[in-house]
Amino acid sequence: MPTISQWRLRAAFAARLSHMYGQEVPAYTTLVDVSREVNEDVLRARGADAERLGSIGRVTAERHGAIRVGTPRELRQVTRVFAALGMHPVGFYDLREAAASAVPVISTAFRPVDGAELARNPFRVFTSMLTPADPRFFDAGLRSRLEAFLAGRELFPPELLTLADRAAAERALPDAEAERFLQLAVAAFELSAEPVDRAWYETLEKVSAVAADIGGVRSTHINHLTPRVLDIDELYRRMTDRGIQMIDTIQGPPAWQGPDVLLRQTSFRALAEPRAMRNPDGRVVSGTLRVRFGEVEARGIALTRQGRARYDELLGRIDEQAAQNPMEARGDIARAVWERHMPGSEEELAAGGLAFFTYRVTDDRPRDGSRPPTTLAELVRQGWVRAEPIVYEDFLPRSAAGIFQSNLSGDGTRDDGRQGAAYDADWLSGAIGRDVLDPFALYEEQQNRSLAQVARELDLPATLG
């Protein structure tokens, strides 16, 4: 019997989701079209160098989605759906602490973790869960009402979860079951036509627009779907030229002449979408909600823990200088700080242990009978080994919070005089019944595997210094 493998299920799900979201949010289709145009222009201008962090085929097909759920039970269920697609929870993100306004969620990202799987289709979903137990946002009465509301809804039908469990166990589904799974999975993330209880939604919206989007409706939906672009600054200009209102900034590292690291993101502003609203008197009227936006990203090199500490330190310097010089453009400040304190080449990043690379023995290595050097730096310098940057596959809490904040209609409310509810990666692992993987460990494992292969091929010590 013909079957559909997990990676093909993942690719088909991403494609169908993209088609569905383009119908719901037409400006997203414009974003995808402009991203493709920019990528084609960059490829023509830069040639092979444009594909240093992924083939143009991968970059063009690449998407990340974002969804929001309300409870650990819902998060466990969505974990099962993504497990069917070969996607694992990676990283813990606390957007409550990363945002100045009220964003009462914690998050993880579901994605493939194997290099070959990422190359086939790197689809990932940034998944946020509401935190009703945090008293900074929800008093006891509102928490009780919110938890009761969330307990009474069903986001994922039992048939979908049964098929998901089968796909996860067997790593494939027969054709007919695969088609049914894809239909149910995409439908679970469509925008519902069910009328929104206006009074309840507005009650939550006073706390946080994000809380209202999660807990003010009886379904979930794709909040944004993100293509990947090779020149995000050029994309920002072209979208603006087309009359599409973008948020004020590009989140993440600044544009500069050195290597791209981590992740840069921006979006067009959330659009007012027509929604049916039920008034307290029971009448259903036409209204609008402004919660969904179009995000785009440019991915760089994955940084080590040491490199990430450097990144966070530089963000702090930029904040401090921007506060001291309010008339100076933040982008100019950031670029100057980067050029002073961030290594300007991949070689310097590698030598400083600041970024992750894979290493491979070169075909044109010395063939004069000489023994290779025993240190990694010399192997690379003398041409025995080539370093290839590992692309950053994950997210930045501050950048994600910045995108959320830029698309909110108001700051909401939070009582910072109260102690926040404690959440961390261990809590999240227990809540979903699966280990939330450490992204640094995944990159390090990938790098170490390549070094072990180099050592075997060149008959060197297993640990290269």
TrEMBL record:
E.C. numbers: 1.13.11.93
CDD domains referenced in this protein's UniProt entry, alphabetically: VOC_YdcJ_like
Transmembrane segments: none
Signal peptide: none
UniProt entry keywords in alphabetical sequence: Dioxygenase, Iron, Oxidoreductase
Keyword Oxidoreductase set for record: yes
PANTHER family membership: 2-OXOADIPATE DIOXYGENASE_DECARBOXYLASE, PTHR39479
Homology family: Belongs to the 2-oxoadipate dioxygenase/decarboxylase family.
Record protein name field: 2-oxoadipate dioxygenase/decarboxylase
